[in-house]
Amino acid sequence: MPLPKTSQPITPAAPTAAADTHFGRPLSGWRLRLYTIIFEADTRAGRLFDLLLIGFILASVAVVVLDSIAPIHARYEPLFTVLEWTFTAVFTLEYIARLACVLHPLRYARSFFGVIDLIAVLPTYLAIFFPGLHALIDVRILRLLRLFRILKLGAYVHEFAALGRALSASRRKITVFLSFVVMVALIMGTLMYVVEGPVNGFTSIPTSVYWAITTMTTVGFGDITPKTDLGRFIASVMMLMGWGTLAVPTGIVSAEFIAQKTPREPTTRTCHHCLSEGHGPHDRFCRDCGAELPPWQRDGG
Length: 301
What we know:
2 domains, Four Helix Bundle (Hemerythrin (Met), subunit A), single chain, mainly alpha
């Protein structure tokens, strides 16, 4: 359960003094090979590991979803129990393997994906010790936590990382845009409160702002509708504004996607001598120090 596959670089058997000071005791032997398989996706073993793990994640989520359907749960409960414990055992072993092969296991355990990994396995074990906690809604809330396993997919698909970078780069523009939308909804909601009033369902300014938001987003539940001609005119203007409003965030994020395109696709390959990352899939030598890259890192190796 994943760290994004480019963090925590690894060191060779004879690292530089600076690397040893910063990263602690160097990795070698089976720990080095295990790290390469788990955290570097651009190898044959790494790709196979990722595909198998993605399959387990999707299967485990499917089991949780099917188990929530009463007729299916009643018929296949023993099978679902066996499958759930199988998935939990696999994810537990994977979590332990990640902690064993990184230089700073506590740092990984406190990372975003480390926390997600723990949440993915913890509910099954908690259900053993707290099977009768009705305050937890009959332990169903613990089953819902297993759906966090789906978040683990983000570390295995390049497009997830690209989307995350685009959203992060767009956050200030999107924040300004959302602030503008909130101001418009507040103004238009207040105006509708004055125009329509409580007699037509606009009983307060918060209720009117709620109507303005549902109208601008083109949701339109219909629980509150204007009755006067002026109110309908204002509603029509807000509906037209909503079309343009929905297109703005899409354009902002799309522009960031285009800006991030580079002619060279980055990889997770790491030089074990200078710790430089992002080598090409067919590179034989490190682009920074010139050291030969391990043969198992090469594409198809």
